[in-house]
Amino acid sequence: MESRPGMEGRAACGPIVPYVRDASFPVRSAWRTAPRRLLDYLLMYVQEGEMVARVEDREFVFRPGEFCLIQPGELHALEGPSDTITPYVHLDVFYNPGRERSFVVRSGRVDVSGVEELMQPRLEAATGVRVPTRFVPAHPARFRDTMLKTIGIWQRRDFLGQLESHHLASGLVLEILQAYTPGGVDSPDRPEFLNWITSHMSLHLSEPLSVADMADRAGLSPSRFSQVFRDRFGSPPHKFLLHLRVQRAQDLLQHTGLSMRQISAQCGFSDVHHFAKTFKRISGQTPGSWRRLIN
Predict the structure, then answer these.
(1) Could you give the CA distance from residue 67 to residue 30 in angstroms, rounded to a whole number?
(2) Among the CATH numbers 3.90.1570.10, 1.10.760.10, 1.20.1510.10, 2.60.120.280, which is that of 16-180?
(3) Whole-prediction pTM
(4) Are β-strands 51-55 and 76-80 bridged in parallel, bridged antiparallel, or unpaired?
(5) Which pairing describes strands 76-80 and 67-70: parallel, antiparallel, or unpaired?
(6) Which ranges carry the HTH araC/xylS-type domain (predicted)?
(7) What 8-state DSSP symbol labels residue 230?
(8) What distance in Å separates the CA atoms of residue 179 and residue 216, rounded to the nearest whole number?
(9) Partner of 215 for a Cys bridge, out of 8, 48, 225, 250, CB 3.0 to 4.6 A?
(10) How far apart are CA 110 and CA 35, in angstroms?
(11) Where are the domains of the chain?
(12) Comparing C-alpha atoms, which of 6, 49, 44 is closest to residue 23?
């Protein structure tokens, strides 16, 4: 593993007790920071615009919806070539009794000698989990919302706000580690990974659910999501969803007096023709015939 100033050979670390040091929603025109090394972690979300991060000897271009993690001691420089909104959180992940004395290293400061005892260990050194600079949470939308909530609450600067922001930061750290720990709770390799998806489908049958949307919620690419879904449920997601729509339609046909148009809409079909065609293909009968037979 690459060494960093003042941390060679250090493996010991305190317990995981996240501590938010600074957080904000900067709205900036073209901007840049000079190279620096941090004592803490910097978590960033690109909400609007484009951000370039040069970390050690690599360059990353971040676009809207992407997350960036700068770890302690990494030589880096950041740039927004145009107007950007880049919410960020500076935080300690591991407890350090001297963390009240720690600080956000200013732009341009590369030499952090003399404050080595305040530098946080990197995740891989402390936990064995390697998290990349451009990381993808298991549930990006949920992670984004939690991060933005953390920033807003921390900025209240009152006791309860500080306490809640540290609590929310624990959830952020947990989700990052789960996403990159082999066999972690949110790993696609675990059989329970998609247990939530059938409930999500059932609750949103009247909406135009797409594989891309569901894959985004699961933190996977559409192709990977389809593969994991098929392995878990024995059917492609689109086919599984159509069967759920038809099952809902059968329930409504049996227990309500709703019209075909109303049932079609409630079950998420684009129109009555599509509803009738799909229903007959899956059940072997038209909706009208099925209603007469069951009643």
Answers:
(1) 19
(2) 2.60.120.280
(3) 0.62
(4) antiparallel
(5) unpaired
(6) 195-293
(7) H
(8) 14
(9) 225
(10) 7
(11) 16-180, 188-295
(12) 44
Outline where DSSP puts E strands in the chain.
16-24, 27-28, 31-32, 41-45, 51-55, 58-62, 67-70, 76-80, 84-85, 88-94, 134-135
Contact 195, 202 (CB under 8 A): no
184 pLDDT higher than 70: no
69-126: per-residue pLDDT in tens? Answer: 999 999 999 999 999 999 999 999 999 998 999 999 999 999 999 999 999 999 999 9
DSSP, res 271: S
Which two three-digit tokens encode residue 133? 């600079």
Residues 6+ apart with CB under 8 A from 1: 124, 125
Structure tokens at 255: 């227990």
Radius of gyration over alpha carbons of the chain, in Å? Answer: 25
Whether residue 294 contacts residue 253, with contact meaning beta carbons closer than 8 Å, is answered with: yes
Contact 56, 163 (CB under 8 A): no
d(Cα 147, Cα 223) in Å, to the nearest integer?
27
Distance CA 131, CA 84 (A): 25
Cβ contacts of residue 157 below 8 Å, gap of 6+?
none
Cα(28)–Cα(22) distance, integer angstroms: 17
Residue type, 263: I
